[in-house]
Amino acid sequence: MGERFKMSFTSKQMAFIGAARVYDENVVALDLNSVSKIDLQNIADSAGLKFPHWITRVNDYKAGRGLWSIPVNGAPTKASVPVKNFALKPGEGLVDSTIEGSEPVKNFAIKPVPAAPVTVIEMTKGGTSTVENIPVKDNLFVPFGNFSDVHSILKSEMFYPIFVTGLSGNGKTFMVEQACAKAKRELFRVNITIETDEDDLLGGFRLVNGETVWFDGPVVEAMKKGSVLLLDEVDLASTKIMCLQPVLEGKGVFLKKINEWVECAEGFNIVATANTKGKGDDTGNFIGAGVLNEAFLERFPITVEQEYPTNAVEKKILEKIFDNLGLSDSEFIDKLVNWADIIRKTYVEGAIDELITTRRLVHISNAYKIFNMDRIKSISMCVNRFDVETKTAMLDLYTKVDSDVSPATTEPESVTDPSTDTLGDEVPW
Fold first, then answer.
1. Contacts (Cβ under 8 Å, ≥6 apart) of 124
2. Nearest to 391, CA basis, from 337, 349, 332, 343
3. Distance from the Cα of residue 225 to its chain's centroid
4. Of 273, 199, 205, 284, which Cα lies nearest the Cα of 233?
5. How many Å apart are CA 186 and CA 180, to the nearest integer?
6. pLDDT tens digit string along 332-360?
7. What integer pLDDT is reported at residue 284 of this predicted model?
8. Residue 365 near residue 379 (C-beta atoms within 8 A)
9. Measuring CA to CA, which residue among 92, 121, 98, 105 is closest to residue 4?
10. 383 with 395: CB under 8 angstroms?
């Protein structure tokens, strides 16, 4: 690492260096070329700053066992990856020294054009981005289920991978994002598909302005920055995801394409979400969900099962949504939640193949605002994704839950034929 890049300091890093000077002069006299993690934490606390992981993860700042040097006199010098090549100017020729009296071969030249010049892009925090990807706290979020446990793990900054499983639309991903927001943890989210491979995860070469440039993948960025890595819909992955085995052990990873070993910075952790437990799906509802390698699954210490929220919690969620939309209809909220609860119980019993998720209740709430508080139309538009039989059954059930709604209103509105329009000669189209 020591001779690879030239780095400059960010404003946050300069703030820490300034705090170190003040701490050394006014609080406790320190040898800033040999400080412990406790010293680094004390300096950070004295100025209300975050712990300087950017120091502890760079070998150039290593001053001994458990000791680091604060770069108060400037950043270490790091040069680009060397590319070895040689050249002869035209006309100089080559001489075979093994043959006495050999004459140079004229007009023979080797141009210094490497087949693949390599540039490694790396910013001050070790990745290709200097922006902190801390999720924004969402005021509409209502904590429930495993939120407190997930938050505790992420807040601890211990390496402790989590596998989160549960049916679709019950807030798995949202929960992880908001847990990071509350813990002020940076999050890198990767949406996994069957096509996801090592290049997508760890990094690869890209062509930039005619040069072959190496870009760190999201996994490597999260590792270097000590952030949280979210593998979303991980049960859609193929065996190509096995490249993450050493990462799931917290041992780092070797980037063979650029001959670099990357260690996990403090605070790095992995969360995986899935609709199944990695054993495949027999219901047919999660097409593409495959069987994950047992060795892969075994590297997750815990698995948390995210259920749909209770009726009371789900009412709180919809109340926040309604309030944000400027709506007030507690009666409709109650009926929606009861309706969804009945459908879910029917689904569990095997009497129906579809269910109403919390996410779909949010969709219905938004539709209620758009379609002028028309309950049936809002529901009908949002259950159109289901087959006719299922949709009809769901709408019929709602009319039984909501006695104020007539079954006749479930019929789609007729469209007036402009050729028979008797309201006038003006037609909007």
1. 7, 8, 9, 10, 13, 54, 130
2. 343
3. 14
4. 273
5. 7
6. 999 999 999 999 999 888 888 899 999 99
7. 62
8. no
9. 121
10. yes
Tokens of residue 7, six digits: 């780095």
pLDDT at 282: 65
Please compute the mean of the pLDDT values over residues 19-46 and round it to a whole number.
85
Compute the half-sphere exposure of residue 187: CA atoms within 13 Å on the CB side of its CA.
28
**Distance, CA of 220 to CA of 53 (rounded, Å):** 15
Per-residue tokens: 168:
């679709």
| Calpha distance 375→82 (Å, rounded) | 67
To the question of pTM greater than 0.85 for the whole model, the response is no
Residue 95: predicted pLDDT:
42
Which pLDDT band, with edges at 50, 70 and 90, does 385 fall under?
A: very high
The answer to whether 407 touches 396, Cβ cutoff 8 Å, is yes
- Asked whether the CA dihedral 22, 26, 31, 34 is positive or negative, the reply is negative
Give the 3-state secondary structure of residue 132.
Answer: coil
Tell me the C-alpha to C-alpha distance, in Å, between residue 205 and each of 37, 116, 243, 341: 35, 10, 17, 50
Question: If you average pLDDT over residues 130-147, what whole number do you get?
Answer: 90
Check whether 119 has a pLDDT greater than 80.
Answer: no
**Amino acid, single-letter form, for residue 106:** K
Give the DSSP letter of residue 417: -
Residue 191 pairs with which residues in a beta bridge?
Answer: 232
Q: Which residue has the tokens 């590792």?
A: 223
pLDDT at residue number 301: 97
Find where tokens 């998720």 sit. Answer: 357
Per the CB < 8 A criterion, the answer to whether 262 and 122 are in contact is no
Cβ contact 222:269 at 8 Å: no
**For position 195, what pLDDT does the model report?**
94
Contact yes or no for 33/109 (Cβ under 8 A): no
Q: Is the dihedral of CA 50, 248, 231, 199 positive or negative?
A: positive
